[in-house]
Amino acid sequence: MKICFATNNKKKIEEVKAALGDSFTIVSLEEIGCREELPETGDTLDHNAFQKARYVKDNYGVDCFADDTGLEVDALNGAPGVYSGRYAGEPRSDERNIDLLLKNLNGASDRSAKFRTVIALLLNGEEHSFEGIANGEILKERTGTGGFGYDPVFKPVGFDKTFAELSMDEKNEISHRGKAVKSLVQFLK
Ligand code: IMP
C-alpha cells in the first residue's frame, strides 16, 4: 500500500521506512509532485498536523500522514510550543531560537520542558492521531554538536547528556518523534 509522509525531510522518511519494512511504500511530497509549502496556520500541534495531512489528501488524492513537533517549557507556560521553529522570527534559525530561549529562562529555577510530536494519519477515509513525548530540562548553555533545533540545550530525563550528545539511534529510541512513529508503525502493521 502506498502512503505519503507529508515531509521532504529525508532523515524523517528514512526513519519511518526502516521501522515499517516492506508492507507499506512510503513516498515523500516530492515523489507525489507536491512542491509547494504546506499550510500550517493553526495554534496547536494537532491542528497543524491534520491541516498538512488534509491538504495532501485533498490536492493529491493519496492517503498520508503528517507530523508536527513543539518544545513546551513549563516556566514559559508551554512556549515556544507550536511556534518552536520560528520562535525568534523569520528566517528560521536554530541558533537565534536557542539564544532567545536561554534569555527568556534567565533566572528561572524550574527549567523543566518536554518535546511533543503529533502525527496525523488519513487512511481509508478515517482520521487517526499518535503522540510522543520526551520529558527533560533546558540547560543553561549548549552542550554537544549532534542533532538539530534545540538539541544542544535539551537534557532528557534519566540521562546526563543532551540530545545533541546522543547518537541518532539513541535519540530515536527515547525521543518524542521516535515514540510517535513507533505508535504509528504499530497501528499500520
Ligand atoms: P517540526 O514540526 O518537526 O518541523 O519541528 C518544529 C521545530 O521544533 C523545529 O524547527 C525545531 O526547532 C524543533 N524541533 C522539532 N524536533 C526537534 C528535535 O528532535 N530536537 C530539537 N528540536 C526539535
UniProtKB/TrEMBL annotation:
<keyword id="KW-0378">Hydrolase</keyword>
<dbReference type="Pfam" id="PF01725">
    <property type="entry name" value="Ham1p_like"/>
</dbReference>
<feature type="binding site">
    <location>
        <position position="69"/>
    </location>
    <ligand>
        <name>substrate</name>
    </ligand>
</feature>
<feature type="binding site">
    <location>
        <begin position="7"/>
        <end position="12"/>
    </location>
    <ligand>
        <name>substrate</name>
    </ligand>
</feature>
<dbReference type="InterPro" id="IPR002637">
    <property type="entry name" value="RdgB/HAM1"/>
</dbReference>
<dbReference type="InterPro" id="IPR029001">
    <property type="entry name" value="ITPase-like_fam"/>
</dbReference>
<keyword id="KW-0460">Magnesium</keyword>
<comment type="similarity">
    <text>Belongs to the HAM1 NTPase family.</text>
</comment>
<keyword id="KW-0547">Nucleotide-binding</keyword>
<keyword id="KW-0479">Metal-binding</keyword>
<feature type="binding site">
    <location>
        <begin position="176"/>
        <end position="177"/>
    </location>
    <ligand>
        <name>substrate</name>
    </ligand>
</feature>
<feature type="binding site">
    <location>
        <position position="68"/>
    </location>
    <ligand>
        <name>Mg(2+)</name>
    </ligand>
</feature>
<protein>
    <recommendedName>
        <fullName>dITP/XTP pyrophosphatase</fullName>
        <ecNumber>3.6.1.66</ecNumber>
    </recommendedName>
</protein>
<comment type="subunit">
    <text>Homodimer.</text>
</comment>
<dbReference type="InterPro" id="IPR020922">
    <property type="entry name" value="dITP/XTP_pyrophosphatase"/>
</dbReference>
<feature type="active site" description="Proton acceptor">
    <location>
        <position position="68"/>
    </location>
</feature>
<comment type="function">
    <text>Pyrophosphatase that catalyzes the hydrolysis of nucleoside triphosphates to their monophosphate derivatives, with a high preference for the non-canonical purine nucleotides XTP (xanthosine triphosphate), dITP (deoxyinosine triphosphate) and ITP. Seems to function as a house-cleaning enzyme that removes non-canonical purine nucleotides from the nucleotide pool, thus preventing their incorporation into DNA/RNA and avoiding chromosomal lesions.</text>
</comment>
<feature type="binding site">
    <location>
        <begin position="148"/>
        <end position="151"/>
    </location>
    <ligand>
        <name>substrate</name>
    </ligand>
</feature>
<keyword id="KW-0546">Nucleotide metabolism</keyword>
<feature type="binding site">
    <location>
        <position position="171"/>
    </location>
    <ligand>
        <name>substrate</name>
    </ligand>
</feature>
